[in-house]
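Design request, tokens follow.
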């Protein structure tokens, strides 16, 4: 049977389609399943599909879509109807099957829901009444519904606690492991915008919703090439890797979670170091970003003339608020940026903001006013800054009427007093 590709990286769809069309291997139509784009090919050789599209998920298909069932409810009906012959009971069970999931090899991760969940009381009671071993069902999900060679774990995702400064998924629940593996040994991988990300889902978060924002960085800020970047909340390299792919000279990253740091370096190596294989351009520290000013000073002390940096971007990617890092960012600019060589710096400020404050520009006004106040409080007479909001990107909803946004603020020096442009 021919193979179809399961694509999670939106930016890869067109290149894959074009590549297949050039060799008359593309089969219409392109379809969507949950968060996955399905691209059919006429390739029947498994070796060919793996060598042509390394790292991509794939599966066999038939022209009639049978016996392969595409949706999880249909798949689950086919599986459970051999155990449950009463239609009302079977339908009650299916009503609690979760339909939203993400594929993060080796993990099949289902969204959390009080009603559509494998841990729902009604679902569990029916499973218990009919003496069904769920391990067989989970195994079938991995091997038949999501047929990929490296899928081995089924889990349920639960919300990250806002008060957790290390953004750890404390409530992720493993339902099934096809292999004997400890929590410490689980490393997921996913390719977005042609960049690999690696993380341990037991100890670090991953948000696939950031894919468009990472692509915006790649498409909009190509002038970071040859300049320096500071990422005050680098995590597993969400945005750091975009800057590295663009060819930044140095990146200085700070992260509290040691598991995120390990994931950062695993991802860095999987991306072949973005062309710099000895890690000399990556200065990543497992510590509070309040140490960033000292660490950058120590780096500059190793340079022949203690040269200032060419800081083009400072990324402030922490939710629900990155305000903790604003004074640090401004201090870094005052102490470490060469304003002659790099006269423009962009702050990327991530926040959760109400839709009312977005639509009224209240958030922008308050942010620029706050930045101006911070500058005044630093008592740095050698620099007068001008702050200008150039773009606000709505990334994804965080809660009803609350958006995760990124505000781009350009910082320049001026001979006049501190200016705020609204």
């Amino acid at each position: 049977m021919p193979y179809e590709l399961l694509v999670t990286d939106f930016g890869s769809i067109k290149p894959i389609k074009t590549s297949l069309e050039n060799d008359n291997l593309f089969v219409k139509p392109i379809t969507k399943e949950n968060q996955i784009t399905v691209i059919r090919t006429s390739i029947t050789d498994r070796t060919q599909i793996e060598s042509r599209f390394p790292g991509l998920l794939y599966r066999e298909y038939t022209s009639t879509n049978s016996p392969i069932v595409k949706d999880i409810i249909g798949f689950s009906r086919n599986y459970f109807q051999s155990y449950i012959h009463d239609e009302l009971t079977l339908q009650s069970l299916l009503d609690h099957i979760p339909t939203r999931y993400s594929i993060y090899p080796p993990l099949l991760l289902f969204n959390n829901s009080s009603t559509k969940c494998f841990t729902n009381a009604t679902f569990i009671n029916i499973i218990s009444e009919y003496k069904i071993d769920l391990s067989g069902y989970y195994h079938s999900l991995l091997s038949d519904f999501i047929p990929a060679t490296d899928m081995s774990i089924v889990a349920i995702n639960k919300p990250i606690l806002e008060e957790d400064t290390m953004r750890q998924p404390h409530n992720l629940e493993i339902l099934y492991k096809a292999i004997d593996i400890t929590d410490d040994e689980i490393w997921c991988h996913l390719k977005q915008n042609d960049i690999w990300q690696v993380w341990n889902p037991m100890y670090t978060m991953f948000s696939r919703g950031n894919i468009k924002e990472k692509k915006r960085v790649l498409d909009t800020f190509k002038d970071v090439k040859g300049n320096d970047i500071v990422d005050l909340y680098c995590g597993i390299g969400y945005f750091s890797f975009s800057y590295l792919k663009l060819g930044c000279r140095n990146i200085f990253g700070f992260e509290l979670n040691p598991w995120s740091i390990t994931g950062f370096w695993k991802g860095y190596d999987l991306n072949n170091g973005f062309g710099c294989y000895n890690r000399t351009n990556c200065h990543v520290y497992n510590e509070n970003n309040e140490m960033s000013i000292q660490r950058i000073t120590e780096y500059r002390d190793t340079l022949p003339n203690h040269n200032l940096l060419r800081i083009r971007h400072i990324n402030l990617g922490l939710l629900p608020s990155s305000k903790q890092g604003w004074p640090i960012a401004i201090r870094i600019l005052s102490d470490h940026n060469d304003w002659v060589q790099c006269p423009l710096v962009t702050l990327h400020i991530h926040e959760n903001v109400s839709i009312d404050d977005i639509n009224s520009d209240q958030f922008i006004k308050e942010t620029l006013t706050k930045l101006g106040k911070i500058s005044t409080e630093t008592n740095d007479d050698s620099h007068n800054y001008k702050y200008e909001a150039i773009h606000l990107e709505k990334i994804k909803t965080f809660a009803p009427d609350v958006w995760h946004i990124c505000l781009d603020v350009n910082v320049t020096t001026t001979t006049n007093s501190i200016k705020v442009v609204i």
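Comment from the thread starter after seeing the answer: thanks! The radius of gyration is 24 Å.
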